[in-house]
Give the backbone structure.
Amino acid sequence: MKNQKTKECHFCVNNLEVDYKDVRTLRKFINFYMKILPGKRTGVCAWHQRKLATAVKRARVMALLSATHK
Amino acid sequence: MSKTKKSNIGHYEVLFIVPNRFTEDEAKQVITAVEGVITKNNGEIDYREYWGKKKLAYEIKHNAYGYYALAEFNADKEAVALINQELRLSNDVIRHQIIAKRVKSEEEIAKAKAIQEKINARKKEEEKLLKEKNEKGENDSKEKRSKKTETKKEEKSDAKELDQKLEGILSAKDLI
Ligand SMILES: [Zn+2]
């Protein structure tokens, strides 16, 4: 049911760029265990999903996000 | 397109963390020192940001807190490598990350603006539609209340069908 609501890409629809420093938005695309959610689930398009994955990894490097939920 | 590049200079962004053992003033001195490293290697800083003291998501070299600072600069590839090396060896910076940033051409900026305007217009239309829908929904609920004597299951199926029809009509309007 959730999938049907968020079928459109958050970044395409709102004309946003993926920024690794914007932890608030990155959080939306990560689950409780801090794993990157699949694009299928969040509705992010393939192009932005790739940007998103690198952004999350960059945020982890700078300790903006943790790699685990502990 | 251009294998023979006009210039080797690119736009970069560096985010770095100064450990918590410094006071805020000392940390600012460290930040100016880092900026000095960039300018020393012929980097042109055109943007600065200071985030202040933040809790790290995980401990880095036994530091739970750190001062975050950001700088954007123009430099050539070799200079960036040197800056990276220097920051890596520095004890006053516990972590840093240099990232190449794409500079937008004027065309791209204009395109983005046009898209933004379109989005704003569409949002307004959607709000209008939502209002209409809500008004219709209220009418539906009133009808439902009056039909309380009828069996609930039938009502539900009726309502679903109505909703589907309504949505069909609305989406048809959208297409026009
Ligand atoms: Zn997208």
About this structure: The mean pLDDT of chain A is 89.
